[in-house]
Amino acid sequence: FAEQDISILDYKETQLLSDAYNRMLKRMKTLDDSRQEFVSNVSHELKTPITSMKVLADSLLMQEDVPVELYKEFMSDIAEEIDRENKIINDLLSMVKMDRKSADVNIQETGINEILERLLKRLRPIAAKRDIELVLESFKPVRAEVDETKLALALSNLIENAIKYNKEEGWVHVSLNSDHKYFYVKVEDSGIGIPQEAQEHIFERFYRVDKSHSREIGGTGLGLAITRGAILLHRGAIRVYSKEGEGTTFTVRIPLVHVE
Ligand code: ADP
């Protein structure tokens, strides 16, 4: 009996080990696939502006006696593509930095109201260009242990999107609240909304609902991935509620006290 028991136990243990091993292999394969997909997306995104620049430069070089107006038009298109390339590279760098293990996470007790006030002050002129009203409603002073730079970038992306994907003369309401454990930031807009089926994908890297529209208004598809990374770094959560044609609300919840 004793021998039989041991062999049954061995079998069970081997089975458990082999299951765990298979799960690990599967997980590694998924990670590898997503890394490959990421590298291929990055290459594609970085190549697009370069291809445009090459076409523009070649067509200028091919012509003799280019009129100065045409020359200027092409050069300004090239400058726009350079700006775009710069934005993609900057967004990629920000995204890489949103890693819990990265050395430059700097958690300090910070006034959240002040972060939002500074952001709104910077973004108000951009909103005003399209007659969009940008309002901050803070219910009480909130202090929390956060990485100020990373949190500001995360919230800035949300507010910038609320302005970018809005209608002329629309509005953006940002509110701050807290309870004994968390603080909550809500960014609500009167914009174009996000289709139901797209909502689960918007936090993915490079995902854009309408590629051409987003490109036109200067999107890289990395903004919300950066935001999500920063919020996870703070062990927080982000949710989206949206109705096409009516508007979108993002809610962020972050613990007041940082836990490693
Ligand atoms: P992008 O750089 O294209 O703005 P994001 O990662 O910030 O990339 O957002 C991903 C996509 O989600 C956007 O391209 C846009 O289609 C959609 N989106 C994000 N925020 C909003 C919003 N407030 N209203 C409508 N659509 C939005």
Please tell me about this protein's structure.
The chain is an alpha+beta fold and 260 residues long. Helix content is 55%, strand content 18%. The protein contains 6 helices and 7 strands. It has helices at residues 2-62, 68-97, 112-129, 148-164, 211-216, 223-233; strands spanning 108-111, 133-138, 143-146, 171-178, 182-189, 237-243, 247-255. A 5-stranded mixed β-sheet has the order 2-4-5-7-6, covered by helices on one side. A two-stranded antiparallel sheet has the order 1-3. Strand 4 and strand 5 (182-189) form a beta hairpin. Helix 2 (68-97) runs parallel beside helix 6 (223-233). The longest helix is centred in the N-terminal third of the chain and has 61 residues, at 2-62. It is globular. Bound molecules: adenosine-5'-diphosphate. Adenosine-5'-diphosphate (ADP) is lined by residues 157, 161-162, 165, 189, 191-194, 202, 207-210, 214, 219-225, 248.
Short description:
This is HAMP domain-containing histidine kinase. It comes from Hominisplanchenecus murintestinalis. The protein is an alpha+beta fold and 260 residues long.
Major sheet size, sense and barrel closure: 5 strands, mixed
Shape: globular
Name the hetero compounds present: adenosine-5'-diphosphate
Number of helices: 6
Topology of this protein?
Elements (H helix, E strand, L loop, with lengths): L1 H61 L5 H30 L10 E4 H18 L3 E6 L4 E4 L1 H17 L6 E8 L3 E8 L21 H6 L6 H11 L3 E7 L3 E9 L5
Parallel strand pairs: 2-4
Antiparallel strand pairs: 1-3, 4-5, 5-7, 6-7
The structure holds adenosine-5'-diphosphate (ADP).
